[in-house]
Write a structure and sequence with these properties.
about 180 residues; alpha+beta; Arc Repressor Mutant, subunit A; 2 domains; two-stranded antiparallel ribbon; about 55% helix
Length: about 180
C-alpha cells in the first residue's frame, strides 16, 4: 500500500477498525459492525461510505435487504484489511486505540521506521500542515511511540524522529519505508 492510499484510508476514524473486523470475519452487515466498533452511527456511516469510495468494500450482491445491506471486502480491500488487522492488534489500551483513530498517526509512524527530520516526514506526507505534523509528533512522543533525538554534531542542532515500541510494530505492520 502506498503512502497516499494510507493517508486516505486513515482520514476517517473508524476505517481501520471496520477493515480489521471484516478481516476477522465479523458479519458484513451494519448492525454487527457498528456494535463491534462502538462508533456513533454518523461516524460509522461516514467511514463505511469512505471505504466504499476507496474501493475497499462493496455491497455483497444478492445478500441483505435494500435498507440493511451486507458488505464484503474487495480484492484491494482484502490487502488493506490484513494491514488494518495487524495495526489494530498492536493497540493494548483504550488510549492507544483512540490515538490510532487520529488521521495522521498511522501515516507518520509508517514513515518513521528509520530516523527522519521533520522536513523529510512532511515531504513524505505532502498534504499535512506543519501544525498537524507537529501535533501528531508530540502526541506520539507522549505515548512513547516516537523517539525524538537531538543531533548536535553539526553547527545547527536538529531533531530526528523514529518509531519505537508499539510505534515500530505499527511501522512494520504497514511495511512502508521512506
Amino acid at each position: 500500500m502506498d503512502i497516499n492510499t494510507l493517508v486516505k484510508l486513515t482520514s476517517r476514524a473508524w476505517s481501520l477498525k471496520i477493515l480489521a473486523l471484516l478481516h476477522a470475519k465479523v458479519p458484513g452487515r451494519q448492525a454487527p459492525l457498528l456494535a463491534a466498533t462502538d462508533a456513533s452511527r454518523t461516524a460509522f456511516a461516514a467511514s463505511l461510505s469512505h471505504l466504499i469510495e476507496l474501493g475497499m468494500i462493496e455491497r455483497n450482491p444478492g445478500h441483505g435487504h435494500p435498507l440493511r445491506p451486507e458488505f464484503r471486502l474487495t480484492p484491494f480491500g482484502t490487502e488493506a484489511a490484513t494491514i488494518a488487522s495487524k495495526i489494530i492488534t498492536t493497540a493494548r489500551s483504550e488510549d492507544e486505540i483512540r490515538l490510532l483513530r487520529k488521521s495522521w498517526t498511522v501515516p507518520v509512524l509508517a514513515l518513521t521506521g528509520t530516523p527522519h527530520r521533520f522536513s523529510a516526514i512532511k515531504s513524505g506526507l505532502t498534504i499535512i500542515t506543519d501544525r498537524a505534523l507537529s501535533s501528531s509528533l508530540h502526541q506520539l512522543e507522549a505515548q512513547n511511540w516516537i523517539r525524538r533525538d537531538i543531533h548536535t554534531a553539526e553547527r545547527m542542532p536538529f531533531p530526528t524522529y523514529q518509531a519505537v515500541n508499539t510505534g515500530m510494530a505499527i511501522n512494520r505492520a504497514v511495511g512502508f519505508t521512506l
